[in-house]
Specification:
5 helices, HTH_ArsR_DNA-bd_dom, 3-stranded antiparallel sheet, Arc Repressor Mutant, subunit A
């Protein structure tokens, strides 16, 4: 008989349904290549829309649409600076999720 896998101290064994729902919403918000790229850009520093457009080579309306989705999910926050809005990540935990997913996707799997 094998022993159960050890659980992390900070992870509840049975999260409440509302927590699972919020986690699902968060993962859905991150589940687009452009949004993943935006998160990776913002982990380096806050950026305005035109900087993200230049870095990602994606049309401005598309970047703005993805930023709205990320903002609604609580992933990014925007702060007006003159005529531009500077976007930043709300939480570093999200970067860890995205980096782990990108790293996993780049690994060789049998």
């Amino acid at each position: 008989m094998t022993a159960p896998a050890p659980s992390r101290v900070d992870e509840p064994s049975s999260p409440r349904a509302d927590i699972l729902e919020r986690a699902g919403e968060l993962l859905r918000a991150l589940a687009a290549p452009v949004r993943i790229a935006i998160v990776l850009q913002l982990r380096e520093s806050q950026r305005c829309v035109h900087e993200l457009v230049d870095a990602l080579d994606v049309p401005q309306p598309l970047v703005s649409q993805h930023l709205r989705i990320l903002k609604a999910a609580g992933v990014v926050a925007g702060e007006r600076s003159g005529r531009e809005v500077m976007y930043r990540l709300v939480d570093d935990h999200l970067v860890e999720i995205v980096v782990a997913a990108v790293s996993h996707a780049g690994e060789e799997h049998a």
